[in-house]
Amino acid sequence: MCPAAGPYRNTEMIQAGAHGGIAAMKIGAKNTGSKDCTLKMMGASIPLQMLVQGKARGLPEDMLRPT
User: Fold this and answer.
1) Residue 38 host element (H or E)
2) For the whole model, what pTM was predicted?
3) C or N terminus of the chain, fewer CB within 10 Å?
4) What does the longest C-alpha to C-alpha distance in the chain come to?
5) Does the pLDDT of residue 58 top 70, yes or no?
């Protein structure tokens, strides 16, 4: 398996015209794929619902604030 397969799929979903997304993060987990996709969705100005259990590692504080 290619370790870059997840980021490639995330990019393909966004480029295919995603209209919105839900990101689920869990305390103590790396959240690598979810974080990658979330940052790409934010960069593409795609509306996003964040579901965070505790404080997810590696995410900027402003991503965790309610909008």
Assistant:
1) helix 32-43
2) 0.70
3) N
4) 37
5) no
